[in-house]
Amino acid sequence: MLEKLSSKPRQWFATWLARRLPPVQRIRLQQRHIFIVPTLTGAAYAGSLVLMLLVAINYQNSLAYALTFLLASLGLLTMFHTWRNLAGLTLSAAGSTPCFVGEQGSYRLRLNSHKRDYQAIAVGWTSTQLQLLDVPFDTEQYAELTAQGLRRGWQQAPRLRIETRFPLGLFVAWSQIDLAQTLLVYPQPLHDVVLVTAGQGDNDESEHANMSAGVDDYQGLIAWQPGDSLRRIHWKAWSKGQGLLVKQFTEQQGQQLILDFDQLPGAVEWRLSVLCAQVLKVSQTDQSYSLLLTGQTIGPGVGTEHLKHCLRALALYGVSTP
Amino acid sequence: MNAAHIRKVAEDIPRISLVWLLVAQVLVIIPHVLHVPLWLLGLWLGCAVWRVQVFRMRVPFPNSWVKAALMLSSGFAVYLSRGSLVGLDAAVALLITAFILKLLEMRTRRDALVLIFLGFFAVVTSYLFADGLLAALYSILPVIALLAALLGLQQSSFAAQPLLTLKLASRLFAQAIPLMVLLFVLFPRLEPLWSLPQAKEQGTVGLSSSMTPGDLADLGQSSALAFRARFDGAIPAQSQLYWRALTLPHFDGRSWSISQRLATQEPQWQAQGEALSYSIIMQPSTQPWLFALDVGSSEQADIRLMSDFRLQRSTPVNRAYQYQATSWPKALRQPQLSQMQQHEFLQLPRAGNPQTRDWAQTLRQQYPDDNALVAGLLQHFNQQPYHYTLKSPLLGKDSVDEFLFSSRRGFCAHYAGAMVFTLRAAGIPSRVVAGYLGGETNQAGQFVQVRQFDAHAWVEYWQLGQGWRSVDPTFQVAPERIERGVQDALKDEVDLFQGDFLSPLRYQHIAWINQLRMSWERLNHSWQTQILGYQRERQQAWLKQWFGQVDWQTIGLFLVLSAALIIALLVLWMFKPWQRQSDPLQRIVNEFQRVLQRRGFTRQTGEGLRSFWQRIRTDLPEEQQPAVIRFIELYEQQQYAQQLPDLVVLRRALAEIKK
To answer: Which of A204, A315, B329, B410 could serve as B392's disulfide partner, Cβ 3.0–4.6 Å?
Structure first.
């Protein structure tokens, strides 16, 4: 519906909406939040009622009158039913799933009902792409709204559209809510770049690893021994019946990998993307690594938490936290 | 994502909706079975099975060639079985055909919507064929099923209980009733905007414009209702209730028929004696003439008194029709007749029935006075061995001769016809009058119910200065027919309701069944007058009674205001604001306040929890303090942190305080 408006009134509407419905984390939909208009179905319904009325008039048929009036009254009353099917519903932001630039992240939306059953609630970004869910009495339901990561950093969610046409689809009650949701977008990883720039060298006392040694440059396969990480098992070989072999990497002998932003040449975004890819690569191994960003050191560490930490730092590099 | 279900707008039809659509379709079609071609049922069955198989992914949707072929052949079949594609019958058959075929084309929600709207329309058209109380009550079923289908279209796919959908649809239906009643009463009844083909009554029985004696005997077998009459005063005796429908002055040797050149001039008559006032609701007769006692008149604009004293409406009565009439039974009718008119009422075929003609001459010589001749003739019927029966033998060319002199068995039409023939042969202007006699009195309902088997024919002859006088030869033969009705007169001979085992009329001798039947008739009568008869005149009268005058502006205002009131009440009931609960966080805080209030600490309005705490902490017993401050801290965290309240933790903290 909104899409059809030309840009100027649309902008005006957006401003008006922003004033009327300022961003909140949690909202209980009430009178001033909900708009209601007849749908195309409603118009068709009204049209058929007019036809039925003509039959009633021309045939002077009381029952035809009665049915026409019944359906008209019913249609009118569904306006209140539709409105009621949104009123009192509580919406709140329930976090988001970060993503890389160009990929799909998602905002999580929580819907609570404290009053009654809500049926066929549709949520989404635009009126053409909605997901339908029911919110039974005294429950919480979650909806996941996907969005593409566009730029590194915090990405503001657009106003979300919540609407319902229940019960008969003759009216649509809708609202556009800004839940002030944000999505963390990581830099787009650049996997294909092979780093050849040497660091301080192997012999350096600070034990900085040479980046060019590459975590994926494994030396070869050796027989598995109890105590070796399962992650490093070469499953392909095992499936071919060659027995359990373990991938052997050069840097694994007590060495620590340091990924240093300042050591990289090039533009900021490019460097962040390369580092992002490297972090992802290293995190596939048991290798402990640390990330050096200007004025910020993360790690050394291993594991998912550490990875998240690094990715977050990369995503927010030079970005002020909201 | 535990419950969200992604669905594009306007795609396939939910199962629940499909289920209800199929049910609704059966329910919509059932009342049409009586007037649509029967092969449509087969078509429906085929289409329904096909559609279900499509849903089960056993077969594909028909392609456009198949659809086009189906559409064309069905249209052609309707044409073949109805003889045309215009007219109400054919139009409804086409509508039902479309309604059925649309099933095969139903892929998206939009198609389903079209089907549902077609369904509502089909229900409306069913009212044109049957608008009785039962038909109306029945039609609630398809309407609710259609609503359930419409509802199902909107429901998410989690809703999987068809009965819940039905319940919701019924509730919507019930809520709409008060507003519907208001609109029904107050919405102005307009004159038809243009004329439309009318429904042909299925096998309408009734009097027709010509009568051979056997016709009335056939009518005598039918227990179909002809009309009901409600008298403003006491109901006259059975033998007084001669309901005139039309006169049949023309005889062609076999049958009596209405005059072709009947002038529409105003008849001359003088009201005499007491008047009777009554209202009549007649069943559709497809004829323009109405029923009234002599001499009837009506003030309704579309009703005229014709020159033969029958009441006639400007258009044929194709639907149940109600009118008000007043009669003067003792009125003097047409004391003067022109030569031409007299000639018309003396008309006889040139030849035929010579025996009767001779006999008339003999009577003429015997009784020079007309009135004496009539009396003599009646006496003849009384004294000779005539027999009143529905089963008269087939008569030959000289039917009157055969009847009067050999068979002497016949129904009222035989007697009336033979008498008029004889009178005319004797030179007395006379005519056959066709109508109904008597009727069944419903004591509780204060009305008389006249059925087709009450059809009757009697005789009128004319005397200068005295006008038309009615006589009934049948009375001479079978007085019980006149006094107690045809059922009584013929009780030995025929079972009037042969083949109609379920007809409650069969069981009149069982008191409670008869009682039940009478009540049902009464209900039907009210239904016809109050609901079906609620048309322009009735509405005007009703509005006058309530509003003093029919001023549409006032009524419109009243309509809007009372609709607003009804809606307000309904909305109030829907939202139940008295049950309104604040959000759960607030509920917990309220309970916290109540707990402390019970211990003597009242939080003032507008007082923050923190300052409340500051105020009461000194008075609070030491052992209670940690629990209270813990709750307040938790609450503040929840309130101001950008996270959702963890109600469980808060509730637990509250429980701590209560200990």
So the answer is: B410
